[in-house]
Amino acid sequence: MSDLPHDPIPLTPEQRAILFESLNDGMSIYALQVRCLVQPFRPDVFEQAWARVVARHEMLRVRFRWTGVPAPYQEFLPAVPAHVPTVSVRGGSPHRLRSVAMRLFDEQFERPLDLERDRAVIPYAVHDGETAYVCWTSHHIVLDGISSRIMLRDLSEEYDRLLTGEPGPPRPEAGSFSAFVRWRQESEPPAPASPDVPLPDRTGWLVRALGGTPAPAEQRRIIRPFADDLMRRVRETARETGVTVATMVHAAWALAVGGRTGEDRVRFGVVGYGRPHQVPGSAETIGNFVATSPLLMPAAAGEPAGRWLESVQDALVRTWSTGRRTALDADSILVVSHFPPIEHFTGDRSGCRVEILDVADHAPHPIVAAAMIGDPALLLLHVNGVRLPAGQAESLADDFLRHLDVLASARIDVLASARITEGPTNYATA
To answer: Where is each Condensation domain found (predicted)?
Structure first.
């Protein structure tokens, strides 16, 4: 097989935006690291399994070019080294193994990525001969959240086969990210010269309202589990009102943000997972398919709640169907994920286990709310590069859950006549 790369492929608009920010503010701002527990761990077998996954997915063999070229591009190498560096920690307790692994992973995560030279997804394992903690350090220009799970699912399947001594023939290559890029080029009309509705710059509004100050090294994460029956009630209300669960979640976040900023029309970034059915195999393809777009929410004050939820859904549909720009001028982003926050893959043959423990993420946006609406459901509120007064981040997370609870508590006939009055934070019955 030739070692020469395939034809250069242009970046998607989302990749270009990520690269632009990364070159301006440092490659680490969009870095991500997936951390897993692997049992049992056999270093040689694990590396073979990783090599088979790398061979199957072209995005795990990507190399980017932007220095000295007219326009940045990506190229996919036929083969790349699939070595998994390992550190052996012997004679200690399980607690010590985890502690050493997390410290080494933190050090790996702080090293700047050079996507023009390094492998774009770099594994690293710390083990005691039986159990291993493994991380994969990469960048959002390469992977989205669904891609990480595809990668780990395929890895667990290959590892399971190899552990039993029945690897079978190499699996065929998965769907092609380059095919998705070409489809985007062919199917999307040129972007309009200006948006139909001018969107005001909302950079810093929420942070200022929360009393935040710049603190580049600050990274915090607030975790708030949903009440036991909250998602059940959200689903029931969504079904009765004819909107999606995601609409309910976005509406609750808009109310929480508007309650702090005092805005009638709240602005924040929303994330769409764009894996088009027109591209064969896109559901099984690794790559960055997400588009973060600015959403200007419809005014809530004085509107019947049911009608307002419908207008929120309409705004989301319009944004996702024409999402061309990243939300660079809004200081909060909402991500709605149907995946559980922790997931594991178990081999059918050997019983091997690959469990996702955590995902470390250097997001450039000051406030990123991730609503995980799987089981268990919870809110992860990330605060990046700003320092908030004590309790402000926790209070914002609690506001979101309170608004979601109120939206999900009303019966359909009451919700249809409920009005949101005196700004976005108060409810009354008409």
So the answer is: 8-186, 223-319
Q: What is the β-pairing status of strands 378-387 and 213-225? A: antiparallel
pLDDT band at 225 (very low <50, low <70, confident <90, very high): very high
| Mean pLDDT score of the chain | 87
Is residue 48 in a domain?
A: yes
**Helix, strand, coil share (%) of the chain residues, nearest 5:** 35, 25, 40
Within a domain: 4: no
Same domain, 209 and 162: no
The percentage of the chain sitting over the pLDDT mark of 90, rounded to a whole number, equals 60
Whether the predicted pLDDT of 5 surpasses 60: no
| Structure tokens given for 203 | 């950079």
Does one domain contain both 49 and 90?
Answer: yes
Residues 52 and 150 occupy one common structural domain: yes
Domain hosting 173: range is 9-187
| C-alpha distance across the termini of the chain, in Å | 71
- Tokens 């199917």 -> residue: 187
325 and 372: one domain? yes
Query: From CA 221, how far away is CA 226, in angstroms rounded?
Result: 16
Tokens of 90: 């012997």
Q: Does 301 lie in the same domain as 395?
A: yes
Give the tens place of pLDDT for each residue, 372-426: 998 889 999 999 889 999 999 999 999 999 999 999 986 545 445 555 554 445 5
377 near 389, Cβ under 8 Å? Answer: no
Residues paired with residue 221 on neighbouring β-strands, in sequence order:
382
Beta bridge partners, 369, equal 334, 381
Domain presence at residue 200: no
Statement to judge: residues 212 and 153 lie in one domain: no
Consecutive H or E run containing 369: strand 367-372
Whether this prediction's pTM lies above 0.85 is answered by yes
